[in-house]
Request: fold
Amino acid sequence: MTDSIAQLTIIQPDDWHIHLRDDQALATTVAHAATSFNRVICMPNLVPPVKTTTDAQAYRTRIMQHLQACDIPAERKATFDPRMTLYMTDHTSAQDIEEAVKSGIVQAVKLYPAGATTNSADGVTNINALADVFGAMEKYQLPLLLHGEVTQDHVDIFDREKRFLDEVLVQIIAKFPALKIVLEHITTSDAADFVLAQGNNIAATITPQHMMLNRNHMLLGGIKPHLYCLPILKRESHQKVLLDVATSGSPKFFLGTDSAPHPTDKKETACGCAGCYSSPTALALYATAFDSVGKIDKLEGFTSRFGAQFYGLPLNTDTVTLLKSPMQIPTSYPYFDGSTLTPLMAGETLPWSIKA
Ligand code: NCD
Ligand code: ZN
Reply:
């Protein structure tokens, strides 16, 4: 049946986890994001981070200024709606949460354990000291978005997500059982099982790379810096479970690209940055992944329904059409100051594309 579907029209998707960066980067990242997505949850790990509602408002204004200057169709500009997040630090207060809720533009708060990933130096060092903040978020039902990895030096990089579930997340859930939580960019079957075992207030995003690729793709036959992201790609058995739950129709799993631009020369170097850039081709990547297991009929829930439902937002009213017609992923995109971005699976041909 799948093979007979030549095209598929779905509700316009949202991206519940994206890094747009700031200033000149926005000229590229906003145009790419707005081409495919309506709402995007903008991660706050700028330098310096988006810590307050005032910071978030100013960041949203910069994004909207770049949107107006983008060379994309007017109807895409009209519906693009960047939703802001605050970056939780050891100094975040319950009052910061109240201000965020009142603002109407802050959709969630992101917790990076200090040192876990790109620009996380100002992240949280002691979760136990933030009980008032979690309490306020629980009261107002403002979601907590988690980079779910422990950061102790001695913990193996491939074990960091599972250790976070066992040592940190269970404690947060025990103390704040009604807190809405999104475990971002899950990479293991442990995380998928964990989320499935919880109530409806706990969900997860899954990136294209974690459902399509595993650590063999990154490391066999030569190291591929453009597949290096955090949390790091795991073994194939985990990849298969992620694809399985994403395509299962469970509303607990929804689209979050974690598209995270770093200039090509910062990836192809002795100490390369973590992050995969997927925003412009993410929909074709997800369609390819779903179709690979005969589940293209489950795509719309994952891309366009379950995230909005979790966040308590209306479904988008416009649509996008995907075609089963091959598309080559560009080898690079121009970025700012003469740099380039090398996208995820650059130069590869996908069976699915987006109808212009
Ligand atoms: C992200 C980035 O570059 O900002 N990198 C990544 O590898 N995913 C940060 C993050 O989401 O961990
Ligand atoms: Zn991210």
The pocket of zinc ion (ligand 2) is lined by residues 17, 19, 43, 258, 260 (CB under 6 Å).
